[in-house]
């Protein structure tokens, strides 16, 4: 029942692991690959201790020799066990079984929940305001529950293999900011002295979070939260392969600035998502109620993300007119600048980011479009 030539789930190994766990024969009735990931929903029988279906994540054969793949699996295992066993919070799926040697995890099946991304694409943001609010609360709740517990997490993670806590804190995409600054300079928008100083101070604040140091799943986007399509907004966060302790407000950026999937997002200060997130965060990090600290660090996190996305400029510049990725980059820069303006933070960096966006609008006439709320593009319009 397995097809290892394409990295498909190894059924015999799974049945053996679950049989050993339950001390009774467990048989896989059927399974369904959840494309495009190495993830499957699996229906099992033979042990009353097991649910009728589970979700299995594995490392495909073609990636088994890649250093990053098993590292990500161990990170997800540690993070999920840390949340459910050490902290006893219900924010993510429970781990039912794991075989790190065979490189797969057996997780709680969260169905009938579906991804928020799927709902937004199908129905639009206006139809799912309550689920967007649940998304914002869940992001804040994850940071609130995990703040101050980094030592316990890394003790668990180190038990599964080497881990670099400093790299987690700095953010795995941080080096891309340097490339972005070079691109801005080449475009004719170099950062002046005040911008350089203000940007350095902002990035130092992100690298030294203080009380804002909290666990992130490493990809705080709408595709990584599962909710019921109707009824109670009982949210669960998924995909912890890049989990680590970093500045909590990096998880709020997705509410203010478009992620890779979207052309636009809503203005969270108008929709109320900003308050939903901040109130949930403050339950575990009281310093989130300090307007100056909160606004400054949030503006820094949004600016950092905008610069990370700007590193793609050389690629986007080669694409044909009308490519949505160009428009998305302009939207990302302007949304990051808007966040600084809302919170009256980083005025020099904010002005610089606005200048870069203006240069790109002139360079790419196809991207010189109205992105304001209520304009041509609705909130959470997918990038094509």
UniProtKB/TrEMBL annotation:
InterPro entries: Kinase-like_dom_sf. It comes from the Bacteria. It comes from Streptomyces spiralis. Gene3D superfamilies: 3.90.1200.10. This is Aminoglycoside phosphotransferase domain-containing protein.
């Amino acid at each position: 029942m397995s097809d290892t030539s394409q990295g498909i789930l190894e059924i015999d190994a799974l049945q053996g692991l679950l049989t050993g766990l339950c001390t009774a024969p467990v048989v896989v009735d059927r399974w369904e690959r959840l494309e495009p990931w190495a993830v499957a929903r699996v229906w099992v029988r033979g042990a009353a201790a097991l649910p009728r279906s589970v979700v299995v994540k594995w490392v495909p054969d073609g990636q088994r020799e890649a250093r990053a793949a098993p590292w990500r699996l161990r990170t997800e295992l540690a993070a999920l066990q840390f949340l459910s066993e050490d902290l006893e919070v219900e924010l993510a799926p429970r781990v039912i079984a794991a075989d790190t040697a065979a490189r797969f995890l057996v997780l709680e099946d969260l169905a009938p929940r579906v991804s928020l991304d799927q709902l937004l694409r199908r129905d639009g943001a206006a139809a799912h305001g309550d689920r967007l609010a649940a998304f914002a609360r869940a992001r804040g709740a994850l940071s609130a529950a995990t703040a101050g517990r980094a030592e316990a997490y890394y003790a668990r993670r180190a038990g599964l293999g080497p881990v670099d806590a400093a790299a987690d804190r700095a953010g795995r995409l941080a080096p891309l900011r340097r490339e972005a600054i070079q691109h801005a300079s080449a475009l004719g928008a170099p950062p002046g002295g005040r911008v350089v100083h203000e940007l350095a101070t902002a990035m130092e604040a992100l690298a030294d979070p203080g009380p804002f140091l909290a666990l992130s799943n490493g990809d705080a986007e709408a595709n990584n939260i599962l909710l019921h399509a109707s009824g109670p907004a009982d949210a669960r966060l998924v995909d912890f392969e890049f989990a680590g302790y970093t500045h909590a407000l990096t998880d709020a950026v997705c509410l203010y600035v478009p992620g890779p999937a979207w052309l636009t997002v809503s203005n969270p200060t108008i929709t109320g998502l900003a308050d939903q997130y901040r109130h949930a965060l403050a339950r575990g990090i009281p310093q989130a109620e300090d307007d100056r600290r909160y606004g400054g660090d949030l503006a820094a996190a949004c600016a950092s993300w905008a610069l990370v996305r700007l590193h793609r400029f050389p690629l986007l510049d080669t694409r044909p007119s009308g490519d949505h990725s160009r428009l998305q980059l302009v939207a990302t820069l302007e949304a990051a600048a808007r966040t600084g303006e809302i919170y009256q933070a980083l005025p020099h960096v904010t002005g610089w980011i606005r200048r870069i966006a203006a240069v790109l609008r002139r360079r790419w006439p196809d991207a010189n479009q109205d992105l304001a709320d209520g304009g041509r593009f609705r909130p959470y319009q997918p990038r094509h």
